[in-house]
Amino acid sequence: MEPIRVAQIMGKMLYGGTESVVMNYYRHIDRTKVQFDFVADSDSVMPIPRKDEIESLGGRVFIVPPYQRLHEYIPALVKLFKEQNYQIVHAHLNTINVFSMYAAKKAGVPVRISHSHSTAGKGETKKNILKYMLRPFAKIYPTHYAACSRLAGEWLFGKKAMEQGKVTIFNNAIELDKFRFDENVRKEVREELGIGDDKFVIGHVGRFCYQKNQDFLIDIFEEVYKQNPNAMLLMVGEGEDLERIKERVENLGGGTDLRQQK
Predict the structure, then answer these.
(1) Is residue 257 domain-resident?
(2) Of the residues 63, 73, 82, 228, which has the fewest C-beta atoms closer than 10 A?
(3) How far does Cα 86 stand from its chain's mean position?
């Protein structure tokens, strides 16, 4: 018996947090019963992040026009959903889900899941305007509501929906074994980065953007450094605030060593 295929609407795949969460679930589900297909916008990172792994696990990757071009995006989704005869479509783009959910309903997909992974945050005025404009339509086309937290669920679907148990919470599961302390890994990474054993390292991994609040992290580290001159702040990521953060660190008298991802 063939597994049920679920179309996961990912938007722009850019090695981001949402796709990491979905991949964590994908790696651990019973893929003899359920398979994931990933639908990504054409302006994603190319080649598509984790494409080889997805295909090795039995999944497929489909490319569609970016959602900014709705006149192309929606027809492409409708066509894809019909051709692949999907019975389940699961969208992960917050308020933008309205477009893929509409396409799924138009294509006759019976199970349409809208998943909220965030709320509206400060620092993204244009995005927030769009979010608030689209939010009233969030519950029109999905058949099921999902969220990564109660707050994210309330923001997109409303407190009443949460209280009535209409929103399923999927906690952002991680693979704990990957993050267990390993003395050998510690030594190898420090040698690779040229960090001595005497250094007290504080690490941060995340996109350089307003939500990740690297400015506050730098403020805290400045106080740590006053107490321990052997302390070192190591930040990993890319994003729109990268150059500004680099400049701020240099203005505080710190050094920056930018290294390209291998």
Answers:
(1) no
(2) 228
(3) 23
